[in-house]
Amino acid sequence: MSKPKQRPAAPDAAVLEPGLVVATYGRHCLVETPEGRRLICHPRGKKNQVVVGDQVLWQIAGDEGSIEKLQARRNLFYRQDEIRTKSFAANLDRVLILIAADPEYSESQLARALVAAEAERITPIIALNKSDLAQPFAQAWERLAPYRAMGYSVVPVSLSPRSPVADDGVAALCEHLTGHTTLVLGPSGSGKSTLINRLVPDAQVETGEISQALNSGKHTTTSTRWYWVPSLDRSEARTALIDSPGFQEFGLHHIEPTRLADCMPDLRRYLGGCKFYNCTHLHEPGCAVLAQVEGEQSAGTISARRHRIYAQLFEELSQQRW
Ligand SMILES: Nc1nc2c(ncn2[C@@H]2O[C@H](COP(=O)(O)OP(=O)(O)OP(=O)(O)O)[C@@H](O)[C@H]2O)c(=O)[nH]1
Ligand SMILES: [Zn+2]
Known about the structure:
Layout: E1 17-25, E2 28-32, E3 38-43, E4 55-61, E5 64-70, E6 76-80, E7 86-90, E8 94-100, H1 107-119, E9 123-129, H2 134-143, H3 145-149, E10 153-156, H4 170-177, E11 181-185, H5 192-199, H6 203-214, E12 225-228, E13 240-243, H7 265-268, H8 304-319
Parallel strand pairs: 3-5, 8-9, 8-11, 9-10, 11-13
Antiparallel strand pairs: 1-2, 1-4, 2-3, 4-5, 6-7, 12-13
Bound molecules: guanosine-5'-triphosphate and zinc ion.
């Protein structure tokens, strides 16, 4: 009597190791082990497409690794590089939106980034850089008044190490970052590299190493990267910054237009007070949101600019569904 054939043991079960995705480019990524070793990994199959911040299980395959399992994500931040290329980061505590007195920031882009963070319930922080440029800074600070009023932390900073400003605000900003994982976003020229270089002394070395490891130096400037910030670690939690290039239009396609007002704290306050339960807050009579929009005759709590941004986004998100 022949013995029933034994099924081979699951080949990989014993050798799967945990890791953190610290950089991505195209199909490959860099994974850091709990001991701090970094190696190139390739996702197995389409399903395991990873983003920076992902926790994975991987196994060795030659001198590189193969990602076998993607652990469940706490959140996933969406943004869009080009029409079709989306890139993300996962498992974030904070999104830092770094804008500057100069170049002038786009309020629409700021609003989009905030909506994207709210949709994933990630706490946003706004930092306004270049406080040494007194006049443009005062103007930019004033434009941010609605964002302060709706409860966001808006931190004035002067990140340039040569800054002549006595209190450069960096300590206050660091308070928000300590012990957390923060995705840093901002338009070109706002000071993202200046911030990373200031808080991560080895950033340039690390960037070089990552470029070398990924063996595509010319492309890696467009990738998203994870940096540890040892100087801000707390005993119970490490501090990390994720640097993501550009501040292009955000694809907010994953948000239903009817959810939009709920992702804008100044509008959210009044939801539930409208006459119609399916109010779009654009033109309906008895709309509690519209009643609060600042006008020539009325002094509401919602700025007219913010309501215009809401209306534009609402239309854009509605069109995508046709
Ligand atoms: N006046 C002033 N200039 C600053 C300050 N912080 C940064 N800068 C300057 O602003 C310019 C842009 O800073 P970067 O750190 O390169 O900006 P970035 O956001 O990384 O820009 P991209 O790489 O294009 O995305 C540089 O010339 C910095 O020296 C500041 O606090 N005050
Ligand atoms: Zn309404």
